[in-house]
Amino acid sequence: RIEDLLFDLNETAGTTLVLVSHDQELAARTERILHLRGGQIVNDERRTEEEAQAVA
After folding, report:
1. In degrees, to the nearest 5, what angle opens at C-alpha 26 toward C-alphas 23 and 32?
2. In this predicted model, what pLDDT tens digit does every residue of 15-45 receive, in sequence order?
3. Phi/psi at 16 (nearest 5 deg)?
4. For residues 6 and 56, what is the distance between their CA atoms, to the nearest angstrom?
5. How confident is the model at residue 1 (pLDDT cuts 50, 70, 90)?
6. Which of helix, strand or coil describes residue 8?
7. What are phi and psi of 30, to 5 degrees?
8. What is the mean pLDDT of residues 50-56?
9. Which of 6, 7, 22, 47 has the most CB atoms at less than 10 Å from its CB?
10. Please, where are the H alpha helices in the chain?
């Protein structure tokens, strides 16, 4: 899947990956989730790399 390739590139190349999605399962694979409402950040969730990888 394309998202697997993006996550692999993020890890191997040390790049920043910015995703915009309503897919909670996809978002759960990330180390940080920003929740927006009305164009404003209303919540900032952070996980360790290990927590994010455990979901993948």
Report:
1. 105
2. 899 999 999 999 999 999 999 999 999 999 9
3. -90, 135
4. 13
5. confident
6. helix
7. -100, 165
8. 78
9. 7
10. 2-13, 24-27, 49-55
